[in-house]
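Fill in residues.
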């Protein structure tokens, strides 16, 4: 790309996009055709600098599960930090005010230990969480993945092979990057071996109740055991392939992985960075997929917008790490601890999960109807995280249709709302993951808008073919 993304009648947004283009590399973002400029946000909405309102179908890539700037969450977050209104306005005497410190490196605050106890208790309150009794905090999902793998590798340095599910996404840094993607990607770590993840068997939501033939997956695992035996240390997988195209497998698949790990004393690491805190329709995906992992990796929705992540797992394995081997500047900082506590407060004391179930039905029915336009070929997903796979249409490839769909949703209806989507996963799959606190009326209105925009795009693409 040699010029900044620009749209007609968006002078303020275009100026900001131009500044961005001149001051930051393209590599800092994945490609999103709209390059939305967000001036303010509340609940399930963003506003552009020009004042256009957008339904947020991304939750900031599955982060703002409770919506943007929720008042009750913000009140609790501020209370945990000891912030008062005058601390924000700058009123009062002196240059400083007394509150919880913003940084406590190598020290500890009460809210850190409270966050650890509350998170462990919350996980263990759900079936499948019993093995998770120690928290390693991290500042990002990829760091948390790396710390989980470090702990497993320290348990027995002679077991140096990691199994990872092919086309998974666990991050871009260090070991997290090494277990992402597949063996055909460049710069592969020879200690990582990839295994298959169901895709064709679950490439549309209508297949989710069909039984899965697990023989292929069992055989593949046994072949790896025969090849590497006791060298296999751990197995890491996502509950569903997120960045790989939103494939949500049948429960049987994860049970095969768990059985294999138990039989050979291999650590099972479930990367729930995308899925945690309700996205699959359960608080944690291990509950949805009926397994009991040795480690659960958390992030994104864990802090509802504050950067925080964690690995929660077996204390007997984590104890293999010595002083400093999982430390860094930002992990377990008081701001992130306060955000975790405020988020737990909301999930434990409100009906957000019940609301998620209601929203899920509205979205499944609405997204399925998009197939009638010819723009969308397949729909996948569960809870409040979906992938809609674009079709070839109007002489355009499915990848080109996905780009046009994101633009059409962003521009919305004249004088009305638009919809904020991110660039496609795996080339042609658009993720739909609005905040889980939107009202049923907002859900129906947003789906109706999506249907109108999708229908209009179908007509435009077909008309372009007819006139060509």
């Amino acid at each position: 790309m040699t010029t900044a993304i620009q749209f007609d009648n968006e002078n303020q947004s275009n100026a900001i996009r131009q500044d961005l283009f001149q001051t930051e590399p393209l590599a800092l973002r994945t490609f999103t055709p709209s390059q939305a400029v967000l001036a303010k946000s509340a609940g399930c909405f963003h506003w552009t600098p020009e004042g256009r309102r957008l339904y947020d179908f991304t939750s900031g890539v599955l982060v703002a599960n409770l919506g943007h700037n929720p008042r009750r969450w913000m009140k609790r977050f501020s209370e945990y930090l000891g912030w008062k209104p005058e601390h924000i306005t700058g009123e009062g005497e002196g240059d400083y005010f007394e509150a919880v410190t913003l940084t406590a490196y190598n020290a500890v605050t009460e809210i850190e230990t409270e966050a650890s106890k509350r998170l462990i208790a919350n996980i263990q309150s759900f079936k499948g969480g019993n093995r998770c009794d120690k928290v390693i905090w991290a500042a990002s999902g990829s760091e948390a993945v790396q710390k989980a793998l470090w702990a497993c590798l320290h348990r027995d340095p002679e077991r140096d092979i990691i199994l990872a599910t092919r086309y998974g996404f666990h991050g871009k840094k260090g070991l997290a990057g090494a277990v992402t993607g597949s063996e055909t990607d460049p710069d592969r770590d020879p200690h990582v071996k990839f295994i298959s993840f169901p895709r064709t068997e679950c490439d549309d939501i209508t297949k989710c109740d069909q039984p899965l033939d697990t023989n292929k997956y069992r055989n593949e695992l046994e072949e790896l055991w025969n090849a590497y035996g006791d060298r296999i240390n751990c197995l890491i997988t996502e509950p569903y392939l997120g960045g790989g195209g939103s494939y949500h497998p049948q429960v049987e698949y994860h049970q095969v992985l768990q059985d294999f790990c138990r039989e050979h004393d291999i650590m099972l690491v479930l990367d729930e960075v995308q899925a945690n805190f309700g996205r699959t329709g359960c608080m944690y995906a291990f509950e949805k997929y009926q397994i009991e992992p040795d480690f659960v990796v958390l992030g994104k929705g864990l802090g509802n917008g504050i950067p925080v992540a964690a690995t929660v797992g077996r204390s007997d394995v984590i104890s293999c790490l010595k002083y400093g081997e999982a430390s860094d500047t930002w992990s377990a900082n008081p701001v992130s601890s306060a955000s975790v506590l405020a988020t737990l407060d909301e999930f434990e004391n409100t009906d957000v999960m019940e609301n998620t179930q209601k929203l899920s039905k509205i979205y499944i029915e609405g997204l399925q109807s998009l197939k009638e336009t010819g723009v969308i070929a397949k729909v996948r997903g569960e809870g409040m995280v979906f992938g809609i796979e674009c079709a070839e249409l109007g002489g355009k490839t499915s990848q080109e249709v996905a780009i046009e769909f994101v633009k059409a949703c962003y521009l919305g209806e004249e004088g009305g709302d638009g919809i904020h989507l991110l660039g496609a996963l795996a080339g042609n799959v658009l993720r739909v993951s609005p905040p889980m606190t939107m009202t049923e009326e907002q859900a129906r209105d947003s789906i109706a808008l999506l249907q109108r925009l999708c229908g209009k795009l179908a007509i435009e693409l077909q008309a372009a073919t007819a006139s060509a």
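Residues 81 and 386 are 35 Å apart (CA to CA).
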